[in-house]
Sequence to fold (185 residues):
Amino acid sequence: MAKKKGSIEVITGPMFSGKTEELIRRVARAEIAKIPYALFKPMFDTRYSENEIVSHDNKILSAKPVMNAKEILGFSIDADIIGIDEAQFFNQELIDTCVKLANGGVRVIVAGLDMDYLSKPFQPIPNIIGVADQVTKLKAICVECGEDAGFTHRINKKEEKQLMLGEKNSYEPLCRTCFGKYVKM
Fold:
């Protein structure tokens, strides 16, 4: 029997571009095909649910909350597909975890922001992109002009830390031109 071929797929883009929705779509296809899978999310991301990933348009799949990327290895023994949502909230060990899984024949699908609210690379996503087999960069719709939006603008200017959970009351998608009105690039 041929060895399973592992891979790493990255779904990225700004907030409200459909990253989680696309992750759910890919995993749901595996569910239809009866391919064993496991979904993971950062434990502290409880915006919509503690043990589900939920897209902004309310698509839902069960997920295992984990404290760190190494935990994913222990919970992935029987899975042929691993989905990881909100990957920007993990540290650099996520890269090694993804590579180990893929090298072991697992299809790894990672969804997360590649840039923060200042348009700076949001690790570990850029480094995972470097080892990925496939990258899908999604666009949102600019809330100011209606063009394709590739940037996440933080509305709440008082909070300056990079990691901040939020939704539509905290962030909005903007195109490059509109984003440039608020943030020097």
Notes: The chain is about 25% helix and 25% strand. The first strand starts at residue 7 and ends at 12.
